[in-house]
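Revision sheet: structure tokens.
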Amino acid sequence: MEFPAYIKHRKIRAWITEMVELCQPDRVYFCDGSQEEYDRLCQELVDAGTFIRLNPELRPNSYLCRLVQIYDPVKGIHPHPETQGYLEWVAAVEAQLAQAESQENTQLAPPTEVPALAASLGELRLLSQRLMQHNPFSSQENAILETIQQSLQTRTGMATPSAAFDRFWSQDHLTQANWSAELEFWRQQIHPLINANYYRRVNRFGHPVDYFWLIDLPFMIIFAIDLALRIRGIRQRDPQLTWFESILRRWYDLFLLFPFWRWLRVIPVTLRLHQVGLINLAPLEAEVQRDFALGFAGELIQVVGVHAIDLSQDAIRRGDVMQWLLYPKLRREYIQVNNQNEISIIVKRITNIIIHQVIPQIQPDLELFLNYTLHHIILEQFPGYTQLRYAPVIGRLPQRTTERITKNLSEGAYQSLVQVWEDPEVAEMTVNLAQNFRDALATELKKKHNVQEIEDLLIDLLEEIKINYVQRLTDVDIEQIVDEAERLYRQREGGARSEL
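Predicted:
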């Protein structure tokens, strides 16, 4: 199948080909939206009787679709009885004039010779005056009556609408101006305006009658069947989902089933077009998420931070913090995985690495540091040490002595550190020392005046943190933070693509 040059989208072409193979049409026509195409299609509809061409002077490029006659009753729209009665009387006058023409010449006979026609024209003038007085046109269509009046005033040369109607439907005017030309003017310019007048019926509640649901119901049934099949497919792919959760996966399709607010159906239509790739909503989605983050992130951080500080203040007021510090046995049991204290093991492991592997590697640097400290900082403070360094025989004795002391000191300190770390008695004494320190500190902190003072200070500190925290949040530019996050995300994505 050959495609026009303006259809370039690959997926559109694939979809058209699929539909042609499925439907097997006799021919495929591509609309180009040109004025030539519009005029040709409208003329075909006019030839088929579907369109009625309106007056090109009053309604240029306008047509009346006969489908309106089917759709109007659905919306409770009916021709206005007063204007329809007026047009029926005009049709009766036209019939009488046509009959008079068939019996005599194109010039009308005097009224005394055609009494029925004179009476009909007199009744028509009376109806014209009533039409202007009652004004059956709706308030939105007052311009129609004004247009009719202006057209008749221009046609008859009269100064007022009443005089224009009386003059136009007088036998003298029709005789002098050629009644056939005047009736053609009426049919072309006045009749369509009056014939377009309508009224809407109302129900017992005073609302306009609307049976549009009769037209919408078949489409809603189709939408409901489509939605049910899609939900069933979701359930088959993921049986763990409930029916309600499966429906939520297609939440936007529910708008297709609303008998009201039908404009919301644009949402599922737009999303479906996005899903098949005909439109791209990714930029819009990203911008919506960004605006939501900007409006929500600052308030969320502020609320969470203030709430956390309030919880801490409440815990201090209740005494939970001091109870946790002073009474370890009352603390909630800490769950250990594999029955081992990971923090203690990590500390021991790091300490062993420092003592047995790191310190031996940096021991020469430690000896150099101690040698410099003893020689240049400590010994030079003694009187006569500087002069002793320049003595002929014993001048280098202080330096050798310092080096020996430094070496022995570093080696002794290292060996002592290793022995202390590996001695179980030292470890036990360390534990006892820490326990006694904690017990002594707890005994002093348990005194009422100390507890109260510490709690008051902690509460005041947290209050200051809360005030300054909120103040800093008001000064923070959330949009700048989001922009920075987006920039870092793009850098990471760009790095990942470059690695590939």
